Amino acid sequence: MAFLYNIGVGAYHLGVRLAAPFNEKARLLKKGRKEVWEKIRSLQRGKERLVWFHAASLGEFEQGRPVMEKLKQLEPDTKILLTFFSPSGYEIRKNYTGADYILYLPSDTKGHAIRLIEAFRPDAAVFIKYEFWYHYLHELYRRHIPIYLISAIFRPEQPFFKSWGGLYRKMLGFFTRLYVQDEQSMQLLTAIGIKRAQLTGDTRFDRVKQIADAAKDIEKVRLFCEDQPAVVCGSTWPPDEDILLDYINRYDGPYKWIIAPHEIGESHIKTIIGKCHKKVVRYTQSAGNPADYDVLIIDCIGLLSSVYRYGKIAYIGGGFGVGIHNTLEAAVYGIPVIFGPKYQKFKEAVSLLQEGGGFSIQNGNELKEILNSLIQSPAITRTAGQKALTYVNSQLGATEIISEELKAK
User: Which part of the chain is CATH 3.40.50.11720?
Assistant: First the structure.
């Protein structure tokens, strides 16, 4: 299995190099991995304690972020090494001030693992959610460096639970402790003899609570709403926008509409505006009184998590594609969330549905039915929103548990 694993890693690395001339993400990954050793040689590790955090991409970084920041609060002198697998994480967070060293993770070979670990000599390592790299984990384990997996979630179809998944089960055995999100994960691990697991929940709940507590006032959005209720449509894709705009164009009532598309390229923004028959204004180009418009397009990044505070209802995009985006960013404000049919792999969405704080739709007719119900019945909206907030609050606390474990003994 290790032989096949090495072939797979090598094949992936070759594929990245071949795709680099034609694919922006592959080009960034190739360039970043090529430069990483030069960057490491220029760094001074120092004598302080160092904890290594590894995230696949931006979403996993957000899960690890509250733990990193809490650890820094508890131990200001502890250094943090942060590595990313994906350019979509590294390129956006390469200047994150909460970490002392930020790098691409070199491809998973025995030689690379030895070089990286010898360069930084971590006192502990934290892998976030589902990052399993055999050589890095084995080298850490061999050197008796504590390894933690946080916000992990396991499903029966994963290789750990297959007859051929011996190498993956071996990787689980390298971890000092596995902090998992749900009871099913605990049961799956117990069934294969992994006893160092602990049910703590998902650190993303702590993160969205942090964000909500620090949410900034966005004057243009506040003036746009002008004390009128609003539906915030976050991280939308074209299939989401088509059914939303069909509803918005027919809607005649007090609600206002805020659309924050996932892709903010100029052509896409113009397409949305072209399909909208209401008075529409772009966030970056608003002139005059924003309250004079019916629809506000958020055509820049970095605002959405704060924009949700102005909504009475949220629609979360992505559910007609590969999967929904972050429902918790909206639910933490105590508002009901609506999303498309592809939500099953997202535990928090499943739980929001079960608790009555979320609603899933299959098509435009179902969107119309749910929006009409919520808009016409404020009591239903308030009750669903309170259920969403209660669920979020019930899941807080993972960061405290994990941070205490990571402190110097």
Answer: 20-210+396-406
Contacts of 187 (CB under 8 A, 6+ apart): none
Q: 90 with 55: CB under 8 angstroms?
A: no
- Identity at 236, one-letter amino acid code: T
Give the fold, CATH level 3, of 211-394.
Answer: Rossmann fold (3.40.50)
- What does R_g of the chain's alpha carbons equal in angstroms? 23
- The helix/strand/coil state of 375 is helix
Q: Take residue 252 and report the two structure tokens written for it.
A: 């005649």
Across 323-341, average pLDDT: 97
What span, in angstroms and rounded, lies between the C-alpha atoms of 372 and 253? 11
Class of CATH domain 20-210+396-406: alpha beta
pLDDT band at 14 (very low <50, low <70, confident <90, very high): confident
Identity at 167, one-letter amino acid code: L
Placement of tokens 């959005």 in the chain: 221
Rounded CA-CA distance 57/84 in Å is 6
CA distance 29 to 105: 10
Residue 356 has pLDDT above 90, yes or no: yes
How does strand 256-261 pair with strand 295-297?
parallel
Here the tokens at position 260 are 């924050």
Query: d(Cα 324, Cα 321) in Å, to the nearest integer?
Result: 8
Phi and psi, residue 315, nearest 5°: -115, 125
Location of each CATH 3.40.50.2000 domain in the chain: 211-394
| Integer Cα distance of 296 and 273 in angstroms | 10
Helix (H) or strand (E) holding 167: helix 166-174
Q: Is 295 helix (H, G, I), strand (E, B) or coil?
A: strand
In angstroms, the CA 108 to CA 105 distance is: 8
Q: What are phi and psi of 94, to 5 degrees?
A: -65, -15
CB-count burial class (<10 Å; 0-12, 13-18, 19+) for 378:
exposed
- The yes-or-no verdict on residue 57 having pLDDT over 70 is yes
Would you state the structure tokens that stand for residue 257, as one six-digit string? 């509409």
